[in-house]
Amino acid sequence: MKTKRQKENIPHESSAAKKSKTSKKNDDVNLITQLDNIYLVKHSCVIMDFWNICISIDPKSPTEAFNSLNSLKLVGPFRYLNDFYSKSKENKNNNYLCVDRFSTDLPEMQTFAIYKGGRFCFWRDLPNEEPNLIINISNNSPNFPTFAIAGNGDPLSALTFLARLKKQKFENIFKKIENQSEIMSKWKIYQQKKFLEELRKNRKEITVGEPLHGLGIKVEIVGDCGYRPVTENTKKLRNDLIDFATTKDETHKAKLKQQLLQIYTYVTIANDEMDFGMGLEFGHNLFISNYECFDAMTKSVLEVTYKLLKREVFAKILKEQWENGRRINENKKVI
């Protein structure tokens, strides 16, 4: 009597094949743990799925598997995976935590791909959560860049975003992949307009505030505690920060300094009253202004805020970034 498997003509998987798959899965889990330890934040198994696709496409240079798409190159966690994969000894002393960080990469961000004109970052509101959002940042704005939602936590969604942005088709590259049908199913979903619309809608629903990067902030609101606005006029705050950093009029600069110090005082009061979101929003604004004159205040505001929000890992990443030199690698990373 034939079994159901035999009737449907489903090939039997050998015990050796099963063992190989189990071993590969365990290796991937171990690598995810290594990434968590090196970058101090939680990583998703989707990263390994994507990395295995890259290896299938270009075994010699997996970080450049999608180079035909606007010169895209994988960095960040994929730098470590590539060094591990190639058994590279050259980069064993790499400060992986900071080597691919841009000056406007908040601790919530992790750049994982760069391309001609911009980059993609994983976004985490909490260090112990897997990234469920990918943002795109253009290189055109060194000060106050806008963070555009480009996908969920799957790097494949970022590729879809870039292909659409650059009006470039390159799906044929997946023909070499064993699970091509599964990849193309995802690709079709990510291509749909409603995919990004839904991500933006969900983001708006779970965040508060109007930080100048456009993503909102995520803080716990209990009753009336958790958040209060930095200002009623975000456009004016942005202009004030630019004016302070660029003006040569010392009288005007002194006036602006008093206004900014007043906000700093308000943040301190808000912290005492458990409205920690105000400090997070103000700190984000100072950070992405990317003016060196605000570095000391930025570090002061965000270090305190991250600790109050129990996001100490972000405070540690911030400290590492400052000690390593916030802008030390900027020129060599821009394609």
Annotation, overall tally of beta strands:
5
Report the mean per-residue pLDDT as an integer: 91
| Largest sheet composition | 5 strands, antiparallel
Total individual domains? 2
Structural class estimated from helices and strands = alpha+beta
Radius of gyration: 23 Å
The DSSP helix count reads 14
Low-confidence stretches: none
Helix-strand pattern, N to C? HHHEHHEEEEHHHHHHHHH
GO molecular function: histone binding; poly-ADP-D-ribose binding
Subcellular location: Chromosome; Nucleus
Biased composition (Basic and acidic residues): 1-11
Family: Belongs to the HPF1 family.
Verbal overview:
- By secondary structure, this protein is an alpha+beta fold.
- 52% of the residues lie in helices and 7% in strands.
- α6 crosses α7, α10 runs antiparallel to α11 and α12 packs antiparallel against α13.
- InterPro entries: HPF1.
- Belongs to the HPF1 family.
- It is found in: Chromosome; Nucleus.
- One of its GO terms (biological process) is DNA damage response.
